[in-house]
């Protein structure tokens, strides 16, 4: 019977450790690690995400500040705010909640964040560091995937890994992290032929396609570990809806272990954001801003 890798439990453990480390940091330095979240516009989902991140920061003893800008704000105003946050030594992490309104070039905005404060790990400098294995801040969801994977497979060397999905925020960085750990990695997208066959050879499958129940039981080798990143809302017959992953989890009892949805990778993402903020504050405290 496959074991379930609880992201909820892992995130709780990570946050408990972080609470202790933040208390020590604050005592030594006389200030707490500080995350600033920038929210543009009125997207209700973005408001919820930002509120959760701020609440969680405060729970572990970090400072967190929200900057709200109107939906019609100019790119220039947003870039000016980021420049001010970059220069403010009391700010250790900057997060710009995506998506941004159409008049703003998201790429330009993310490129403007000081890479040392880029706690989402999306800046090209951090992307480059990840791909060259030279440190930097790692995107939060991929980091969460790796923590969960290594909780059941501490040594990844020589494993065959398949990543389904090649987005810049999940698929590609997960693939880089797996490579770094010594896996042989196949990255798949919409145009991959024979996806089922490709998966059947894998010791590890990371599913990040955003397609409900894409990975069927017969795609998964006996004893494989499956990390399900997908978050998909599906309609039920009775008019309600429910969140499911990219994996048909009720068909993979022959796997060694898998992450459930919900309660798998999801809870790790915010925990890793906080970990990145702590690491950013530590690094800045050593060199000064
Ligand atoms: P995305 O849409 O940017 O990328 C999806 C990728 O999957 C693309 O590269 C696409 O080519 C590939 N893909 C789509 N359908 C496919 C198919 N049928 N076969 C093979 N490849 C296919 O999405 P994303 O931002 O990378 O997110 C992926 C999923 O992960 C979504 O469900 C998203 O909600 C979820 N997600 C979860 C978390 C979390 O905290 N757990 C964080 C980010 C994203």
Question: Briefly, what is this?
Answer:
By secondary structure, the chain is of the alpha/beta class. Helices cover 42% and strands 17% of the residues. The chain folds into two domains: 30-114, 3-Layer(aba) Sandwich (Rossmann fold); 140-267, NAD(P)-binding Rossmann-like Domain (Rossmann fold, 3-Layer(aba) Sandwich).
Q: What is the CATH topology classification name of the largest domain? A: Rossmann fold
The largest sheet is: 6 strands, parallel
CATH class of the largest domain: Alpha Beta
- Please report the number of helical segments: 9
From the structure provided, what is the oligomeric state, counting identical versus distinct chains?
A: single chain
CATH superfamily of the largest domain: NAD(P)-binding Rossmann-like Domain
Please name the CATH architecture of the largest domain: 3-Layer(aba) Sandwich
How many structural domains are formed by the residues?
Answer: 2
Structural class: alpha/beta
The proportion of residues in beta strands is: 15-25%
Q: What's the alpha carbon Rg, rounded to whole Å?
A: 19 Å
Number of E strands: 11
